[in-house]
Amino acid sequence: MCLPEWEGQSRRWCVWIDDADELGEEHLRQFWLTHGNGECTPIHDTAQYYWPVNEVVIERPAVDGFAGGTLGMGFETFTPWFDGFEVSADGGPWTAHAAAHVEGHRAEGEVAWALHPGRNVLEIRSRNTSGRVGPTALIEIASLSHVPPEGDGHWHVGGDVADPGGMAVRGGRLYAARPWSGRVDVLLDGEVVAEIGTAVPVPGHPLGPPIEPLHEAANIRRAADAPRGHLMSPMACVVGTDGTVFVADSENYRVQPFDADGRALDPWGEHGVEDGQFLHIRALAAGDDGSVYVADSGYCGAVGLRTEHLSRVRRFDADGTLVGLIARGESTDGDVRSPAGLAVDTAGMLWVADSGHHRVLCFANDGRRQQCWGQFGDGWGDLRYPTDVAVTDDGIVFVADPQHHCVWKFTATGKVLCQITRGDDGLPLLRPGRLTSDGKELFVGDVHSGLVHRYRDVTG
């Protein structure tokens, strides 16, 4: 039986050692030492390996003897005044576990680990005669759907400023909005083959783009006369079934469509809170029926000092006519707060990264809520201001969680399967904030590094 290896949450480590007699560099690829002060140190070569005091090191699993769903695990420690081990499986209670062999301060242990389909977690720590316990060693083994996919190439779209905005994929091409560059890049196999839109220069102010209340009034006046096809801070894009590219022209407070050849069409929208008006557009999605979903949010009321916040997710047709309100939230209540990402699945359901509520929502196209899951926290599967969502053809939901430096993989009902923490280069994701999927592959935009990572075979 092939048991996949993978690293768990940040600040935890696992080691997966085969039957080789000597410890080699190939065994340390996913090995992190957890020191007594709580720091984690990646191990890159055998010269860095040493025995931290009180550390438990999980050693060679008895893969050859794997039978009946039980895996034999060996581990050892160097703990002064060693008294015993403590073991926890799948987050259960810690139980005392006697050592198999003790020689001085060095002790060895063995445990029979009963595995089940899904995610299995085994935690082990040492205890001394005073009752003090050492750092926790952790190993995770999962069945296939719970194993994070491996990266398969990355593309740099950051330019001088790492600014990948919302992305879309259609016909093998990746469309990446570039907020600071004022355009949408079209990439094929990682190479930019076209640029869409004409950039509006960002005002040369030390505070950057227009902010309220200092510049917004002037920006609203400027945006009202913005030429067709001119983009200012395009935050997202999406491609319709006919090839039309819709761009969230955020600081022009409108949606700017382009035809399949990149020619600008008539934009729709203006600043405001009425049916055909927008505040700050943060995300777009397109349905196969020609619908365009728009998520916008921001402070409303008279320009100046503001306290009222408004969030909306609405459905439009391709010409900008409002079809219906999907969700709305105000300062203290409502369905959504600062919706940051949208995706439409194969059944026509709309998925929303409800950033301000740290959760994921799913709606039918008439606004009926179908799913609501997620919570704020730092535990397994918890969210902190999720920024985007993507859905595969078989209903797997990926959620960007840049504050946890990962992308979560969920079932459609919110059961967490695994997390993606590394790109194809093996390095940690820094701020994976943007997602898109063609139904079978996943693209992750790291807004800090400017890299877009591609993951194949993410279904199931």
Structure description:
Helices cover 2% and strands 43% of the residues. It is an all-beta fold and 460 residues long. The strands form eleven sheets. It has a four-stranded antiparallel sheet with strand order 3-4-8-7, with no helix packed on it. A four-stranded antiparallel sheet has the order 6-5-9-10, with no helix packed on it. The longest helix has 9 residues, at 216-224. The protein is elongated. Residues 1-41, 43-51 and 205-214 have low confidence and may be disordered.
Assign an overall shape: elongated
Low-confidence stretches: 1-41, 43-51, 205-214
Largest sheet: 4 strands, antiparallel
Mean pLDDT: 82
Give the termini separation.
20 Å
Helix content: under 10%
Strand order of the largest sheet: 3-4-8-7
Please tell me how large the radius of gyration is. Answer: 25 Å
> What structural class should be given to the helix and strand makeup?
mainly beta
Tell me the number of strands.
37
Q: What proportion of the residues form beta strands (DSSP E)?
A: 35-45%
Number of helices: 1
